[in-house]
Design a protein that fits this description.
This protein is an alpha/beta fold. It has one domain. Helix content is about 45%, strand content about 15%. A three-stranded parallel beta sheet has the order 1-2-3. The mean pLDDT is about 90.
């Protein structure tokens, strides 16, 4: 069994990582908005911040308004 935390809250992610029980993070645009993170650049930076905390997998759902 793997333990993934479903959040965009960096403090919660750090806490789970420090406990040594975190296998990864799942997050999405609605969780980003809940944390007050908006705008393409801020969202991309936040995904990088999450990846820098987590040793495991990161599943990051995104939104697109066009194919490109």
């Amino acid at each position: 069994m793997k333990f993934f935390i479903d959040t965009a809250n960096l403090e919660q992610i750090k806490e789970a990582q420090e406990l040594g029980i975190l296998d990864g993070v799942t997050t999405n645009p609605s969780l980003m908005a809940k944390e007050g993170i908006t705008g393409k650049d801020n969202i991309l930076k936040h995904y990088v911040d999450i990846c820098n905390i987590v040793d495991g997998d990161v599943s990051a759902e995104v939104n697109a308004m066009d194919l490109e």
